[in-house]
Amino acid sequence: MMVIRRYALHFAWLVSFVAAGGSLYMSDILLWEPCKLCWFQRIFMYPMVILLGIAAYRNDRSVVRYALPLSIVGGLISTYHYMVQKIPAMANTSPCRSGIPCNTDYVDAYGWITIPLLAFVAFLFITILLLLARKHEPQE
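-> structure tokens emitted (140 positions)
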């Protein structure tokens, strides 16, 4: 557990890097057009790649107060997006009135694993890792 706390910023950066890379792969290589809710999730994920990368390099744990709100809000958006996809009545509350509908499933593995769920898991891991990083006290 001590290793995870010591390198929590590095792990959080790695998760954000993979999540951002995955979203770019889906939109630029697979040519899957993101909906509005996908864009909002990206708005909260992409800055964390830079913030957490710099913080991990410098071992600057003060970044937690900036990155944690991004991760929590991004996770809430992912949760809402997943509900829009899986609960038919929620599709009426979606902000996607033009373009790609927010309830479109490009990925629907096993009937419950979708892109918003994957984004939620990434935001959740980052949140947990940031909370662990905040509590780490370096040994001298």
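DSSP finds five helices and no strands in the chain.
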